[in-house]
Amino acid sequence: MASNKYQCLRGMRDLPPNESFKMEYIASTMKRVAIQYGYMPIDFPILESANLFQKSLGVETDIIGQEMYTFQDKDKSSSLLALRPEGTAGCLRSVLANGLIQRQKQKLFYHGPMFRRERPQKGRFRQFSHFGVEVYGYPSGGIDAELILMSQKMWAILGLKNLNLHINYLGSIESRKAYHHKLQTYFLDHQNQLLSDEIKRAENNPLRLLDSKNPEISDLIDQAPPIKSCLSTEEKEKFEQICQLLTAHNIDYVESNRLVRGLDYYSDFIFEWISDDLGSQSTILGGGRYDPLVKNMGHDIPAIGFAAGIDRIEAILAHQAPRLTKVTIAFESQDLWLEHHLKLERMRNDNVVTHIDPLPGKFKSKNNQASQNDSDYLLYISEEGLKLLSFDERPLQTISFDHFIQWYQQL
User: Fold this and answer.
1) Dist. CA 398–CA 396, nearest whole Å
2) Which range scores top for mean pLDDT: 206-210, 212-216, 251-255, 390-394?
3) Residue 4 confidence (pLDDT) above 80
4) What distance in Å separates the CA atoms of residue 393 and residue 277, rounded to the nearest whole number?
5) With contact defined as beta carbons under 8 Å apart, do 268 and 169 qualify?
6) Domain limits of the chain?
7) 8-172+232-319 in CATH: which number?
8) Would you state the pLDDT for residue 301?
9) DSSP symbols for 83-124
10) pTM reported for the whole predicted model
11) What is the DSSP string of 214-243?
């Protein structure tokens, strides 16, 4: 029985073997697909200067305002450090520091923990795992569609269903300034329907109100002027090009004026994959272009990326995650283990989890142990021969060693 004495901190969670296996399976699947599309891995620190995120995420975001884990560097009292709340800013800093973005186009992916001091709830943890993709040097168009095609292939391999793709186009800084003013005017004209903090947001960052979860202003948001009314002709054409590419690949999507993403660095094309199976925390992947962020850091280079929440994907796969076949091999005596274990070691199959138990014991004991370890099969080697037990079908059969090797290789 679990003990409350050793529970982890609020908002954190332990991952027992079964859940950890699913998390690793999800991440490895996404990595494999990314590599197939020509993306390469990159890694960067969990700990960064807090200033990096303050400059890139926007002072009006909830992350900067109340969710980022920060502390003073004892070596440099004036330096404020932060646990990374997301991956884009750190990845961009890394490619700039290592001269990658200046030399050539880059297609990169990463995987690891992020940290936010959010209110814990289902699907939201204070330490969570992201799989992220960042692309540098490709202008808006085909590469935007490629990220969606790649993510759709990931969902197909993982077997995810009940997903909806939402897209929007935020336009350039100039277009968003015009929309900011139009939206600000609209919401302040209806401020009698807003709470005090919503009025403040309407004054400072009205686009964030479009993402509000307050059902009392849902109709007000639906009737807000769309961002398309402020886009230039060229921006509308770029958005239409991406939509045509998605249609050509038979990818259904919803154009959502409410979709603004939670970080200030996004511009132009943005998108989210939303699950019908997760309740309020329903976004499993979100991304978009962030050309202005790269420009603010000294390089006029186009950029786009996405981040997928491994924890939320794991929650969807809770009852349908694939698992490898597990075979336990046990021995009646130490002498039999010495006789067979080298041959058994050489035959290991990538598609099979093979647990070779080095401790001898009786069949009944090994049968109970294998069952408790969720094995699909038990091979028991005794002086009388080899016995193979299937825990699903339950027949116990005597088998030769050669026959077992043939059977095992076909799993």
Assistant:
1) 7
2) 251-255
3) no
4) 33
5) yes
6) 8-172+232-319, 325-409
7) 3.30.930.10
8) 92
9) E-S-SHHHHHHHHHHTTHHHHS-EEEEEEEEEE--PPPBTTB
10) 0.82
11) -GGGHHHHHTSPPGGGG--HHHHHHHHHHH
